[in-house]
From TrEMBL:
The keyword Transcription does not apply. The lineage of its organism: Eukaryota, Metazoa, Ecdysozoa, Arthropoda, Hexapoda. The gene is LOC113204185. Keywords: Secreted, Signal. GO terms for cellular component: extracellular space. The keyword Nucleotide-binding does not apply. It is found in: Secreted. This is Pancreatic triacylglycerol lipase-like. It comes from Frankliniella occidentalis (Western flower thrips).
Length: 417
């Protein structure tokens, strides 16, 4: 493989190294209350064991709240780990209800039992991420798509008081609580007979994807039939333990769509069926805007609900194999459908391509996919790829320039808006 052919792969490895925090140097934390602490450095400060304690239980005596640089977060909400919780609300939408949703309150069972359910129809539970709410992504894309397509019960989980900007660290701490309270709601729905457990499908975007994984830690009705993770959040979810994050064991079928992998979204596979779109990091039409790349996951999924073309992916054993050209659509024994109508028996890692604008789905027509592969990898390579290539060629000066350009394009840590 030529050095230039290897550039996109080296670029990917550079991104992965940056995300995983391989810098072993001293960690400098801000001393002033108005400075922002990079949440990813918390693991370096606390260590893996204490970090897991923080993420799952808040840490001994809330010691994480006294860390330097947390003054900015003094006004963030850290509620008692109790369900029901007033900071977490649930809203039912059906075709009959329209745009005036009914609130489901576990503390008031009648609100659940006598809600205007579409009885006997599937239940879709939508969970937003950091800085979101019930009227923000993925709800705005996916909820109307479901209700236009058929009779569904769509429940929007609103935990916005626990995930406002700039409270990302606290939001990750609150993920377990939201998962617990959502599990409690699902158990109550099943107990009251308003929904069949096997008809419940949880869809979580970004930090909401990690909430979806946490439901499995608390639910009592059984193992969820399906969880769909839409670019599950990466920052502070690089743990070895699978308990705090979405993984393949959290439901009978866990499918994941990656659109900003290695930056805002998880790089490594998180389900039984993982789809990586386009260059896996950057999406066509987004112009190095990581928020746009990240938000394409719910956009693609919403389109998949009624798309006549569908999103079809080809199998590849790993991301590295994809980037080194060891697999392509031409080599695929079969194509696998991504999104709402994915086959629950499908397993593995798949790669797919989209159009730069709506409709994004390309259907079975992958005649230009090989060319798209080269275009996608060159997009990812961009500045970082040139940096890696020039570095291997010994052109230090050019490499420094490429790195500077890449840094200028690198997105902020995390914001789902």
């Amino acid at each position: 493989m030529s050095a230039r052919a290897a550039a996109p792969l080296l670029a990917l490895l550079l991104v992965a190294a940056a995300v995983q925090g391989e810098d072993t140097g001293a960690v400098d934390f801000p001393d002033e209350d108005n400075e922002v602490l990079d949440p990813r450095k918390i693991v370096d400060l606390l260590g893996e064991e204490d970090y897991l304690d923080v993420l799952v239980g808040g840490g001994e005596d809330g010691k994480w709240l006294s860390l330097p640089g947390f003054g900015l977060f003094d006004n963030c909400i850290n509620p008692p780990p109790e369900c029901p919780n007033s900071n977490i609300t649930f809203w039912l939408y059906t075709r009959e209800i329209g745009d005036d949703p009914e609130q489901l309150d576990v503390a008031v069972p009648e609100s659940i039992e006598y809600a205007r359910w579409a009885h006997g129809k599937p239940v879709k539970v939508l969970i937003h991420g950091y800085t979101g709410d019930k009227d923000y992504s993925p709800n705005t894309e996916i909820r109307p798509a479901y209700l236009k397509y058929g009779d569904y019960n769509v429940i929007s989980v609103d935990w916005s008081p626990l995930a406002p900007s700039p409270c990302y660290v606290q939001a990750t701490y609150n993920v377990a609580l939201v998962g617990n309270c959502t599990a409690q709601l699902i158990d109550e729905m099943v107990r009251l007979g308003v929904a069949a457990f096997e008809d419940i499908h949880v869809v979580g975007f970004s930090l909401g994807g990690q909430v979806a994984g946490n439901i499995a830690n608390y639910i009592r009705s059984g193992k969820l039939t399906r969880i769909t993770g839409l670019d599950p959040a990466l920052p502070l979810f690089t743990t070895i333990s699978t308990s705090p994050r979405l993984d393949a064991s959290d439901a009978q079928f866990v499918d994941v769509i990656h659109t900003n992998a290695g930056w805002k979204g998880k790089l490594m596979p998180s389900g039984q069926l993982d789809f990586y779109l386009n260059s896996i990091i950057q999406q066509p039409g987004c112009s190095w805007d990581s928020s746009c790349d990240h938000a394409r996951a719910p956009a693609y999924f919403a389109e998949s609900i009624a798309s006549p073309q569908g999103f079809w992916g080809f199998s590849c054993s790993s991301i590295i194999s994809f980037y080194t050209g060891l697999c392509s659509p031409d080599d695929a024994a079969e194509l696998v459908l991504m999104g709402e109508h994915a086959n629950s028996s499908s397993r593995g890692v798949y790669f797919a391509y989209t159009n730069p604008t709506f409709p994004f789905a390309k259907g079975h027509d992958l005649g230009e996919a090989v060319e798209s592969l080269h275009n996608a990898t060159s997009q990812v390579g961009g500045a970082l790829g040139e940096t890696a290539f020039n570095a291997t060629a010994g052109a230090a000066e050019a490499a420094g320039a490429g790195a500077a350009e890449a840094a200028a394009h690198r997105p902020t840590l995390h914001n789902d808006n």
